[in-house]
Specification:
This protein has a 15-stranded mixed β-sheet, with no helix packed on it. The chain is mainly β. The chain has one domain. The N terminus is likely disordered. Strand 28 and strand 29 form a beta hairpin. The radius of gyration is 23 Å and the shape is elongated. The chain contains 1 helix and 29 strands.
């Protein structure tokens, strides 16, 4: 029995479903698509020369695949490693797979993660990930312009140092960490628990509970001129950085309860359209500001009113 079965004519292998990415996976197939169904063990190299994606590899457990050329890769096995070997794009579809390692290259990559667990090590090209119910670890390296959306599984996101990355928390536990001097990163808390560490950054970034709201967040800002966007039904505890930070509050109809630690004279507070201060009192924890939508802002350690 051969380890690789080739099917011509745009036929999706009958034993594979791409889960949440099935519609996108099926859209790649046409009359000229070649499907290489790998069901053995060992290391394999796939090279495509046609228009993206001219070749689709469906992998079995415990194999190593190196891609050359534009590919779409559907992974239903376990403990597989897939590496993009050149500067051409690929799309990966994970369905029920555990122990998957994806190494992206110098071109844009898109990953649909269903159930199972996966580790994604980004190359220099941008990476887009749509998470589902599985656990996910993303390491951005020196990449930029990445867009990572966590699902309901436990997720760890280590943003690339190139800047302009968007990391979005999910409905489960999401850990986010960014470092470096690049600017433009946006870290958004999901509806679950988001723990964000930006203490190693020097470039300006944005940490936000909007637009999702309803989640819990613990965040540490960096030394740049950072922005925190709160309110919107969130419960956030934010450690201000050493830069001139802005703490902005918006409303999505749900009152939030946010605490700012380390607020100082360099920092500013701003309110979105329609929000006004309706109350303020200094308590044992600090200055507590109440907004017109019911949101409370506690400036920990501040012993006087700001309004």
């Amino acid at each position: 029995m051969s380890d690789i079965m080739t099917v011509n004519g745009g036929t999706i292998p009958s034993n594979f479903s791409a889960g949440a990415g099935q519609t996108a996976f099926a859209s790649f197939f046409n009359s000229s698509t070649v499907v290489s169904d790998v069901f053995g063990s060992g290391a394999y190299n796939f090279s495509s020369t046609g228009a993206f994606p001219s070749e689709v590899a469906v992998t079995a457990p415990a194999i190593t695949v190196t891609l050359s050329g534009a590919n779409a890769v559907a992974i239903s096995g376990q403990n597989d490693t897939v590496t993009s070997g050149d500067a051409t794009p690929f799309q990966a579809f994970l369905n029920g797979s555990d122990g998957i390692v994806l190494n992206t290259g110098a071109a844009p990559s898109t990953i649909f993660a269903s159930s199972g667990s996966a580790t994604v090590n980004a190359g220099t090209g941008s990476t887009t990930i749509n998470g589902s119910t599985g656990s996910l670890t993303f390491s951005g390296g020196s990449s930029s312009n990445d867009s990572i959306t966590a699902g309901s599984g436990a997720t760890s996101l280590f943003g690339g140092s190139g800047g302009n990355n968007t990391l979005i928390g999910g409905s489960g536990l999401t850990l986010m960490s960014v470092t470096g001097a690049a600017s433009g990163d946006v870290l958004v808390g999901g509806t679950g628990v988001s723990i964000i560490d930006a203490s190693g950054t020097t470039g300006p970034l944005t940490i936000s509970t909007y637009p999702f709201g309803g989640g819990q967040m613990e965040a540490t800002m960096g030394s740049g001129a950072d922005t925190f966007v709160g309110g919107s039904g969130s419960h956030a505890v934010v450690q201000a950085g050493s830069g001139a930070d802005v703490f902005a509050f918006v409303s999505n109809g749900m009152p939030g309860a946010d605490t700012i630690i380390g607020f100082n004279a360099k920092d500013n507070v701003a309110f979105g359209s329609g929000l006004t201060v309706t109350g303020e009192a200094v308590g044992s924890l600090g200055d507590v500001i109440t907004l017109s939508d019911g949101t409370t802002i506690t400036l920990a350690g501040i012993d006087h009113k700001l309004w």
